[in-house]
From TrEMBL:
Record-linked CDD domains: CpxP_like (cd09916)
Keywords: Periplasm, Signal
Main subcellular location of this protein, as a coarse class: periplasm
Gene Ontology cellular component list: outer membrane-bounded periplasmic space
Annotated Pfam families: LTXXQ
Family statement drawn from the similarity comment of this UniProt entry: Belongs to the CpxP/Spy family.
Protein name (record): LTXXQ motif family protein
Taxon lineage: Bacteria, Pseudomonadati, Pseudomonadota, Betaproteobacteria, Nitrosomonadales
Keyword Signal attributed: yes
Amino acid sequence: MKTIMKLSLISGLLASGIVLADSHSDAYQKHASSSCHHGAGKSMEGKKTFWDKMAERLQLTTEQRASIGAVMEKSRPQTAAIREKIRTNRKELQELARNTQVDDGRVQELARERGNLVAELVTERTRTRHAINQILTDAQQEQMKQMREKNRHHGKG
């Protein structure tokens, strides 16, 4: 019974990491409301996207916008592939959970795989963020850092 509890805890922690990572998926970004700061497309009301707002706040030059766009395009296939593997892993775990008998070995294997996939996704996103940071001036980097801190504490009281 302790093994099942441990696996449930690990799966829950990993799932919460996936939810955070998955909210940045291409499908989410394409269809997200512009009121959500993660949206990458314009809404029907024509409001500005997160990236448009960010570019304005940081006063990015045309060259910086193009360079950042290129960095994000380069990263998109890797992150999409990792997210697809995560989805497949999640489906397989869900199937195992529906079985009448638990295959502890397979669940542990999938849990480890999930952890590795989340680590890959975090690593890729960190590389992308670092590459974008290299495009920004020191003042823009500091401004971005302050905006992240403000957003991190947004809504917490």
